[in-house]
């Protein structure tokens, strides 16, 4: 028993594009090496050396869970080594694994903080093993990441050492925890996912049972942390997303895995209800989850502030994990709509284009206070990025029997073993920069298969399932489908266009999605988005950023619904991307005689993932759509010298503040002629 839909592992998928390939290469060349370097600088690696008796010293780093960052980096390196041959990296990881092996205690216990400090261990982990396991000890969280790393590295290299360390550890956890033993749950979920992976690779059912135990034993929490770590109710009684978002999204991911392997319908019911709560009421347009910084987690329904949005990078990654599993359970494309939104927007925003700086929180609005950091004391996000990016091709395709599922539109190819033959499917496109995709089927003989091509939300009439967001403009055209150049009408099923036929060698299926600028309105209950519009083009959500404007103050800009916008590819900009451009307006809110006057401004928006690469400045995803919702610009008194245009003079108005160039430039208006033509 397992998921009815089978993922095509990234090792069977070859990417041949200019978007993801760059990211994966940068992750290999930059993100993984600097993550190792930072782990060395901060003592994370030394902790293993000291715990294992290979070096002298105190616990070197800040948090008791710092081991987990190293584990995630190993997992990322394992994935990356399946794409790039890199002996130096492999040797480095081998040497770290040796240190981890030495740091493991005789009976399998693995947590450097306790091994090094003994009874003087960090306050969060208590004096004895597992004593604060349901609180902040992170002992089991740490191990979950270790098991994931062990499985990945063993699969990548065939080297058993790390897997054996993991098995020894899991056997100890299995001896200590369970009904009639320690009946307690992890304060930070994650081990459930790790144990399932360990079960899948070893076939040892005790690990699956243990994962289920850690879920089922949850629910008797007390005190103020019970919702923070989702121990307020049993996992099957939980119907709403509460508390720390990474904890809970890992929990839902683990529940999906265990349900797939055990057939537990109650788990499926619970996470389906929670999925609706998240997607219908608590999801950012960027695919981010976890609005509130204080507890790094969910707020109430529709509580989605922009400037203070937390949207942790780890939570967006966890949202991808979870939604992918919801798809694997159901075959429904709506889960991929959420996955794609998180992936192309919140996840990608979490790491710079150069791969060496990171966002922990990913706000949807900035007043110039945000920029990516080289590293964090709590370094969960960079290490999570380093492991996620190389595994990304694994989310593109799936299969069920003779049905091939294309979930994401990324040029490249994949091989499918079908009941009656093998098909290599090649995907060609310029995604995410236009919507035309050509699939070529390579097969030795004619082969019967059903090609399911996802119709993404951005190419139809709903950005995401539910009514949290809606497009205000309909697409000008419907998707067009062709087989070998002839237009066809496919069957539709669960959000996919289905082409079922006997495929001949070199048959082509072509899909042309309407690739248009979509304007999005939020549910009126989202206070911060009222009277504002967001823009999306393909899978990418856009934002306006100061760097594209001569005046860095852009919060007084608004974009009337009726304004026509265009887009175009800019190969020179931020690694190459489509910008959206056109005209917006600025409403002056000073106290001068021209108070309330409205001026045109050249409008530019860039994909959200690309913001914060050009210095600090204002940024907004949700742009006021009328003069009513703009925010006053401080310090604009100098602009009061501008002669306001009179409505009946608009065709001929001029700015009468010579030398006015500097002021005009503040609003992106380089030439008076541009103003005139704008009316
Ligand atoms: Zn994080």
Secondary structural class: alpha+beta
- Poorly predicted sequence stretches spanning 5 or more consecutive residues: 635-679
Strand content: 15-25%
Shape: globular
What small molecules does this complex bind? Answer: zinc ion
Percent of residues in helices comes to: 25-40%
Rg, Cα atoms, Å: 26 Å
Described by its quaternary structure, the protein is single chain
Total of helices? 16
Features:
679 residues, alpha+beta, eleven-stranded antiparallel sheet, seven-stranded antiparallel sheet, 16 helices, 24 strands, 18% strand, globular, disordered C terminus, binds zinc ion
What features would you describe in this structure?
- The protein has 679 residues and is an alpha+beta fold.
- The chain is 32% helix and 18% strand.
- It has 16 helices and 24 strands.
- It has helices spanning 20-41, 44-51, 67-81, 87-103, 112-117, 139-157, 161-176, 191-202, 205-216, 245-262, 265-281, 313-330, 333-349, 380-388, 661-666, 672-678, and strands at residues 6-7, 13-15, 365-367, 397-400, 403-406, 412-418, 421-429, 436-442, 447-454, 469-471, 480-483, 486-487, 491-493, 496-503, 507-512, 517-522, 532-537, 540-545, 557-558, 565-570, 577-587, 598-607, 618-620, 623-624.
- Strands 3, 10, 16, 17, 18, 19, 20, 21, 22, 23 and 24 form an eleven-stranded antiparallel sheet that branches. Strands 2-6-7-8-15-11-12 form a seven-stranded antiparallel sheet, with no helix packed on it. Strands 1-4-5-9-14-13 form a six-stranded mixed sheet, with no helix packed on it.
- Helix 8 packs parallel to helix 10 (245-262) and helix 9 (205-216) packs across helix 10 (245-262).
- The termini are far apart.
- Mean pLDDT is 91; it is low at 635-679.
- Bound molecules: zinc ion.
- Zinc ion (ZN) binds next to helix 12 and helix 14.
- Residues 312-314, 360, 380-381, 384 line the site of zinc ion (ZN).
